[in-house]
UniProtKB/TrEMBL annotation:
Coiled coil: none annotated. It catalyses: P(1),P(4)-bis(5'-adenosyl) tetraphosphate + H2O = 2 ADP + 2 H(+). Its EC number is 3.6.1.41. It comes from the Bacteria. It is an enzyme of class 3 (hydrolase). InterPro entries: Diverse_Catalytic_Enzymes, HD/PDEase_dom, HD_domain, HDIG_dom, YqeK. Keywords: Hydrolase, Iron, Metal-binding, Nucleotide-binding. This is bis(5'-nucleosyl)-tetraphosphatase (symmetrical).
Amino acid sequence: MNISDYKKIIRERMGDYRFSHSVNVAKEAKKLAKHYGADENKAEIAGILHDITKEMPKEQQLQIIIDSGIILDNVQLHAPKLWHGMSGSIVVRDELGIDDEDILNAIRYHTTGRAGMSLLEKVIFTADFTSEERTYSGVATMRKKSKKSLEEAMLYGYQFTFKDLSKRQLAIHPDEVACYNEIVLQISQTKGKNK
């Protein structure tokens, strides 16, 4: 299958906005992959498919996760917005036959991130924040940072996310905190070496 095939598949599963967003994430992911030396084809595939189950009923997403043997932690259980990354990676693997672990992880962790992310995972995480249709306050800064450093863009994205979640008194997943801490420590060690 190619990108055109994947576009047809997701077109049937989502409304106009989500489809447009997925196309834009695929485009942005391909650009970022080229800029940072990641696999452009994998980036485009992960980008187009990252929200494949986003508009699926929550109960159905949960069932896919349970049937696959994934055991949700307490934060995930109470945060249905996180389910589409997990259920999406399972659908992409089981229904579309994509067994590339990097693509599957990029889809699974595009919302939370995690410690030890691959370059492709960072590309998809960032492309989801910076796709063309995004208009949130700070998106111009996020886009600027994404051209300079994926890690700096991700930190900025986490600051935005943590502020929003804490304002709404929602739990922050440990994967998000672990990724944030890992990047902060890497950047501070790099700055220390450059002094």
